[in-house]
Amino acid sequence: MGTREEQGKVCEAVRALLEKDRAAGALKGVDHYKNLFPGFWDVVAEEFEVVAGATRVPGGDGIPVSGPTVSSGPPLAATTPGQGGVVSAVPGSPPMPADRIGPYRVVRELGRGGMGVVYEAQDTRLPRRVALKVLSPQFSASTHLRLRFQREAELASKLDHPHICTVYEAGEDDGVPYLAMRYVEGRPLSDLVASSREARPPGARTSGVVHIPTKEAPSATTPEKPKTTSGETRLDLDRALVLFEKAARALHYAHGKGLIHRDIKPHNIMVTDGGEPVLLDFGLAREEAGEGHQLTQTGSLMGTPAYMSPEQLMAQRIRLDRRTDVYSMGVALYECLTLRLPFEAPTVDRLYQRILTTDPEDPRRLNRDLPGDLKVVLETVLEKDRDRRYQSAEDLAEELRRVREHEPIRARPVGPLGRLSRWSQRSPGMATAVSAIFLSLAGGLALSLNFLKAARMERDAKRDALKAEEEASRLARRERDAKQEALGRESEARSAAEEARGVALAQLRRARSL
After folding, report:
1. Do 270 and 321 fall into the same domain?
2. What is the pLDDT of residues 55-68, one digit of tens each?
3. What is the dihedral of CA 91, 96, 102, 107, to 10 degrees?
4. DSSP bridge partners of 134
5. Alpha carbon distance 208, 279 (integer Å)
6. Catalytic machinery residues
7. pTM above 0.85?
8. Do 115 and 261 belong together in one domain?
9. Which of 125, 328, 405, 414 could disulfide-link to 418, CB 3.0 to 4.6 Å?
10. 163 plus 207 within the same structural domain
11. How far apart are CA 103 and CA 125, in angstroms?
């Protein structure tokens, strides 16, 4: 069966393959996957049940191409407006557990995913509410899934930050593992993005910015002061920048503890009723040092494709670091500032290709209210080459602060030559083909220019020769005319002389006769 480490790697590889096939609508029978992983049939069967079960669970995480998820559970304490800040139990879901799980009294169900269920619960030892994440009973017997659940608890327990969901404790009740976490009253950022999209007026010329609610929102008895459209947009933009600045600083804190999240997305960023961000779901987190954060040799993909960095998508053994989270935070920021994902496609494979090879659409085309510096920030954080990205989440947070406070940013826009160079690096085959075509065209153009030059020189020579010939003919005519004129004058002179001689002779004869 292999060591625990081997089982863990195979478990991730199997789940990644299953999720990819499910997202593409090409999920096959369990025997197909067992044949791909001989010796690990139990692992395959358990992972297959998780993925297939998530597909069948009403209200479970969906698999849209814009954001299929491979995470281990739903966001905590997801809430919706008009329901007292709580999502009701999923219709058709299994019955609620006993009133108590460990020392916690269950109040209601908040949400569920492929592996577990999250409940609102009351700690009977302390006067506090918690979000209780419980591994589904059908998966509790799985050693691999229990290890994954335990790993999430161990990694998240390292973190103590106001903008990261705190894990209070982990335990088991009658063989069922659970995690007790901070209960966050608010809504996932993904819900706010969806609401902002729906609130856009028909025919709007700009996409708009996600609306972040705050405690300062006007009450029913205090009418809101009239604001211009530009003022509202600027307010929403400032709130979004503050939110992401705080989220980025929280992410930097987690990185400082040696963890990378690997699944940063709006669905995993809770926004409290006061407009504060809280990072959720470290179920896919890995320690940045050591081998735990590497992809397996099978090229397993863990995360949500639309928010994954290019290095996460590369099907090879590659070392991930904190910059992959910086990229994912950038995707979420782009989405919240334009209400559009930077990369969308009808299939997962096409989505991967676009993330790896194309540039996102200019955010200012989607939202003309964005300042130019913010466009540069988005271009920098979404660089495909991670060495050109912001090297830490804190760098991103500082840039957002500079934009908000109208200070000069550190990043610089990429010029046309830079874009051409980066495109050639991303698509060397296409660049080679284009270069070959360009060289062929350039060679043909040079040859054509030489031919044209020779033809022009020959034409000019002929023209000069013709002009010389015409000039010679003109000179010959002038000489001939001059000779003829001289002969005419000479003839006239002879005639005049003869006439004068005749007159003289006549006068002489007349004189003699006298």
Report:
1. yes
2. 443 333 333 333 33
3. 70
4. 117, 178
5. 24
6. 263
7. no
8. no
9. 414
10. no
11. 7
